[in-house]
Amino acid sequence: MLRLRLITGPLLILALLALMWGDERFDAWLRSHASGAFAGWSDPPRALLLLTAAALAIVPLAAAEAARLLRDSGLPVPTPLAIGSSVAALLSVAVIFMQPPWPIASAVVPTVVVAVLGLSLLILSRHRSVAGVVPGAAGTLLVAVYLGVLPAFLIAIRQVWSGWVVVGIVLTIKSSDIGAYFAGRSLGRNKLIPWLSPGKTWEGLVGGVITAAVVGGLLALATGGAAGTGRVPVWLGAVGGALLAVVGQLGDLAESLLKRTAGAKDSGTLLPGMGGVLDVIDSLLFAAPVAWWLLLLASSSAS
Known about the structure:
Number of domains: 1
Largest sheet: 2 strands, antiparallel
Radius of gyration: 20 Å
Number of strands: 2
Strand content: under 5%
Strand order of the largest sheet: 1-2
Number of helices: 9
Structural class: mainly alpha
Order of helices and strands: HHHHHHEEHHH
Helix content: over 70%
């Protein structure tokens, strides 16, 4: 298992670096060659390549896994409905963060919510039976928020800051996962929440928090002032890293709740040694909104 993780993990990091590099290059090209297409915008949209990758690959794969877990838990959530709802939620929230010059832009998100709920009720009641309709619609809305609204905050971060800020956030959170894994294996004695995630320990949690704090502080020291946020104090990077580690663990536990209810060990088998896509991004989902607010705080303190 560890050997497979040591292979899959670096490959995923390389894929992330390639995606962010491409997103930065495409953003630069767009602003120099096609800025006229966004006349009237306060700032031309960024993160279009990142948003495309999320909408076409990452979110659909994770939504399919989440739908299967919910079905195994007794909630009849169709995979196509889960995918469509989560992608629609992602795009609608991302559009709001891009601040288009449309008077109706603020109505996009509530319109999508109503559409998701209405379509869910319509599709799930097509057999002229009320059985499972309300639980299925609730499950669909859960997937839309979980895998549409939450990851949209990474798009929001990229809209304001450099793509390398996104990389730093991901590395900080994943360093927490790594620190928690090794600290738990070597020092773990006291179970954190045995009824939910028997493998997690308090020692692992502390190890993950310390690791993320160190990584966050080092990233602030190494890149402060060069990533579009102004000079981020080292203490703020360390405190932010620790906070992201705690919130990331909550995201991990939230996915554990889905898996344990469904009686599954992993969300999927797509990524050798790591499970499914949802197993990899679970800690990022809850941490993304917190990272957004932390960056706003960092910008305010630097100005």
